[in-house]
Amino acid sequence: MYSFGDQNIWDEHDWESHINEMTRRHEKLRNLIETDHDKSPRWLEHLKNTPTKLDAVDAFIEEELLIEESHFPMDEEDMDEDEELFPDEEDEWEPDEENGDLFEEQGEGNDLYDDEEEENDHQDDDDIENLFEDIFEDEAAEASLYDYTSLENIAIYTDARDLSADLLVFSDSHPGYMSHPGFLGLVSDTLIISSKLAAAYSMGFDLEVLGANIAYCKKALARANEALEHLQRLKDDPLQASEYYDIHRRLFELRNNIAIHIQDTRRFFNSQL
Fold first, then answer.
1. Which domain holds residue 206?
2. How many other C-beta atoms are found inside a 10 Å radius of the C-beta of residue 236?
3. Residue spans with biased composition (Acidic residues) (predicted)?
């Protein structure tokens, strides 16, 4: 945890501990979705009830995000009892009419302060754009990060999402693969990569939540490593060599890009403290 002005900023490790604890507490919610008498992956049900493979992937990701959102409830007890959400208008601060505004008395000094603050704001915007310029596929040259960013424009997310859908399409021509536990595990891991990256994006890029963003990306990276292990066990049985190497190439590249993204985001986080 870091101190930033009057705030205590959680780093990725603080957020990771919180998310892991909330995951443990909300395991009952998952058990309601995944019943004991049906141990098949949930995405198989989406596959039956959606018109396309990509729709099935999106339905799974949306369901995962709903579960992740339950980790961050809006609890009124967490608010300070003395803190008012909407303060009364008469309690708002007003300048002393007799003595005037403090900053007005400073004259040109106030303008200098504003110029320095504006320059710092521009520098922060430049840092953000430099950090994410390689991640976004469609970047508006004169827009700030929040003007043009959308989940579908984040390359590592779309790569994971497309790979998941392609694995489902691939299984249509190889129906026997869907009964192979290793192949089901590979698809599940790839889907969870997408959902964790979506969860990272949903946390945002502000300093106070950037640690959570990194924590979710680390979970995506862990799943990518597990997917590669699953894939390794499928080599030659049931996958043929050409099938294996094509999937391995895409998954290996995705894993590396997620790792680079984590390093860049962590570097940016540390630079803002």
1. 2-70+134-271
2. 9
3. 75-124
Full-prediction pTM beyond 0.70? no
Using alpha carbons, select from 132, 127, 124 the residue that is nearest to residue 148: 132
Q: Is residue 236 part of a domain?
A: yes
A 10 A CB-CB count for 158 gives 15
Q: Are 199 and 65 in contact (CB under 8 A)?
A: yes
Q: Is residue 144 part of a domain?
A: yes
| Residues 6+ positions from 83 with CB-CB distance below 8 Å | none
The answer to whether residue 175 is domain-embedded is: yes
Q: Strand, helix or coil at 174?
A: coil
Cα dihedral sign, 112-114-117-122: negative
pLDDT in tens, the chain (273 residues): 554 444 678 889 999 998 888 888 777 666 666 554 456 677 878 888 888 999 999 999 998 888 777 656 544 444 344 334 334 444 444 444 444 443 344 444 445 445 555 555 555 555 555 555 544 444 443 333 333 467 888 899 999 999 999 998 988 888 888 888 888 889 999 999 999 999 999 888 888 889 999 999 999 999 999 999 999 988 878 888 899 999 999 999 999 999 999 999 999 888 887
Residues 6+ apart with CB under 8 A from 138: 148, 153
Structure tokens at 150: 């959308």
Cis geometry, peptide bond prior to residue 238 (ω within 30 degrees of 0): yes
Q: Name 269's Cβ contacts closer than 8 Å, sequence gap at least 6.
A: 11, 12, 207, 210, 211, 214
Number of structural domains (the chain) is 1
